[in-house]
Design a protein that fits this description.
Chain lengths: 286, 332
């Protein structure tokens, strides 16, 4: 089967999966909102209005206002940027580390493999959220610190995945052929094997973004994440907790945004996985 | 089997060292001598706090000596004194042996996590089997959608909504703390009932949001197993479908779930920071959060290390369970 055929098959299968398409649409919509935030938001997200504090949803403020009279809808639209940025930068870091360590472990085996696998075991036995909080306690919370810390604690899954791919790919003929004509290790790892293990990595990265979005919102909710006045869904929710008996809209809408976003990434990731899994092609033909 | 067990226990030693190394590395992220640039950016650390930090972790000595001294202390569960105004030893804040069990933070967190884990497995396994045996049916789709929503739902948001509904609006359930005011004067069963009412929401939240991984995995593991030859053989010799599924397929499909359950311990323990904070439950997670906010470094380090030990212990238990469940390893 040629590359073009495979791509067509992927699209055919992906389009037939309604939930996967829904996930893709959600993610695209999120990108759209984040990119065009200045045009889409009806108010300046930081504009304080002392006369309209804690107003319930109305025609002027579709999602109400917060304790300083700021428009919740505008703040949520700008919050989409934070959510997107944290998700992608954090998982970018995690994927880069995971791919590198996984490739080294799988390709070289032996001691390299043992040391890296042990390191993964160790990282997996430290409760991730504890680790993130502890590091933030020591280095202070800024949006960059949060992205880096989430990234540094989320690479283990990718590393295992890439290692497994390398273990099975490195004995294949095309790798042996590359080695026979004198290609260097670096070239074989990056040009030949890595390319062929990209599909599962992509799936795990998309699912990873969902996790990172949840962690960021939890941190901001606890007041250790993105600091006000920068708007993030998590810190609006944190306000919602303070005004739980006065302003339900501060809790309901940002939570819904997080739920839909995370659901979108998950459906998209699972959809891609199902569309590239050849074992599922087999069962379908039967 | 004994050889396998022994090997598994030996493997713990380097992991334990690794955990202490990473924790030790985090101490060095602290603003102060080793990384002076942070002091300017981080106004919350006072010179005297830094001085105490230096004394506690011997930051003036060579790194290798520091690590050795620290290791010696934590081997005796000595994590130093808390920086908070009570100045109590950290270990006493986490596990106060003079108080009843239910008032010791480590026990509270342990109990809640154990209960959530139990609920998750009790729901996830039957749900996964059902989804697999009724693949692509309407019920499979409903189950899948439900666990997906649970997975995508922020824990703290679900907790907030349930608190608004059952606590603020309906007044059915208490929304914070572990015990009511008059707990001490209640008879035994009254105490149990009171605790159960307080634990219902936190455990529901923790279980619902943690359900997805196990039930999805059970489903796919089951789907994989029912395709194998021995299941066909079991059907061919005329066994009723119930026996095929529960005696033959289920037992085999269960194996990877045991490992997964062990791996999820870390997530559960970490997650206790969030729901203990929301529900005001006096456990280790709540203490951890308070310590992070007040930069009580010794307490942060103590809980981080103990949390890691706890997770490691959970993984070990899962491995033992795997060993007991899998005759192939038992025979070795």
């Amino acid at each position: 089967m040629g590359r073009q055929n495979l791509r067509n098959l992927f699209w055919k299968r992906f389009k037939r999966n309604g939930l996967a398409v829904a996930g893709g649409v959600i993610v695209l919509a999120l990108f759209f909102v984040a990119v065009f935030a200045p045009l889409l938001s009806p108010y300046n997200p930081d504009a304080i209005d002392r006369h309209n504090v804690l107003m319930p949803p109305s025609l002027h403020h579709p999602l109400g206002t917060d304790d300083l009279g700021r428009d919740v809808m505008s703040r949520m639209i700008w919050g989409a940027r934070i959510s997107l940025a944290v998700g992608f930068v954090a998982i970018g870091i995690a994927t880069a580390i995971g791919m590198l360590l996984g490739a080294l472990a799988g390709y070289y085996g032996g001691w390299t493999d043992r040391v890296i696998m042990r390191f993964i075991d160790i990282m997996l036995s430290i409760p991730t959220f504890f680790l993130i909080l502890a590091v933030i306690a020591f280095v202070g919370s800024s949006i960059w610190n949060i992205m880096i810390v989430i990234g540094l604690t989320a690479w283990m899954g990718v590393a295992r995945l890439v290692r497994a791919e390398f273990l099975s790919l490195k004995e294949r003929e095309f790798v042996l052929a590359a080695r026979a004509i004198g290609a260097s290790d670096v070239r074989i790892i990056f040009r030949h094997v890595m390319i062929n293990s990209m599909a599962p990595v992509l799936v795990s990265a998309v699912l990873g973004v969902a996790g990172a979005v949840l962690v960021e919102s939890a941190l901001s909710f606890l007041g250790i994440g993105v600091q006000p006045p920068t708007p993030s869904w998590g810190n609006i929710l944190s306000l919602g907790k303070d005004y739980i008996e006065l302003a339900w809209w501060l809790s309901v809408f940002p939570g819904l945004a997080i739920l839909v976003t995370v659901l979108g990434y998950n459906l998209l990731g699972e959809g891609i996985r199902d569309s590239i899994d050849p074992r599922l092609w087999e069962t379908e033909r039967k | 089997m004994l050889a396998y067990l022994f090997k598994r226990l030996l493997e713990i030693i380097p992991t334990l060292f690794g955990i202490t190394l990473i924790s030790f590395f985090i101490i060095h992220l602290a603003p102060g001598k080793p990384t002076d640039i942070f002091t300017e950016l981080n106004p919350k650390i006072t010179p005297e706090a830094r001085e105490r930090l230096e004394k506690l972790y011997h930051l003036d000595k060579p790194v290798i000596v520091q690590y050795g001294l620290w290791l010696k202390k934590i081997a005796r569960f000595d994590f130093g004194e808390s920086f908070s105004s009570d100045h109590r030893p950290v270990i006493e804040k986490i596990w106060d042996s003079r108080k009843p069990l239910i008032e010791r933070r480590l026990f509270v967190t342990f109990m809640i996590n154990l209960l959530s884990m139990g609920v998750i497995l009790l729901v996830a396994l039957p749900l996964g089997i059902f989804s697999a045996t009724h693949q692509n049916s309407l019920w499979d789709k409903i189950a899948t959608t439900t666990v997906f929503i649970g997975f995508a739902m922020p824990t703290f948001w679900l907790a907030l909504l349930l608190m608004i509904l059952f606590g603020v609006e309906l007044h059915w359930l208490p929304i914070s703390q572990l015990k009511s005011m008059g707990y001490a004067s209640l008879p035994f069963w009254g105490k149990v009932w009171d605790l159960a009412k307080h634990l219902l929401l936190p455990i529901f939240v923790s279980a619902f949001t943690g359900l997805a991984a196990d039930s999805r995995f059970m489903r796919s593991s089951m789907l994989e197993v029912v395709r194998q030859d021995f299941v066909t053989v079991a059907r061919a010799k005329g066994l009723p479908e119930r026996l095929v599924i529960y005696r033959h397929a289920f037992r085999n499909a269960l194996l990877p779930i045991i490992t997964l359950a062990g791996l999820s311990v870390g997530g559960l323990v970490g997650g206790s920071v969030i729901f203990e904070n929301i529900f005001g439950i006096p456990g280790m997670g709540q203490l951890f959060y308070m310590s992070v906010m007040t930069r009580d470094y010794p307490t942060v380090m103590g809980i981080l290390t103990i949390g890691a030990f706890l997770t490691l212990f959970g993984n070990l238990l899962a491995d033992l369970g795997y060993m007991l469940a899998d005759p192939r390893i038992r025979a070795k």
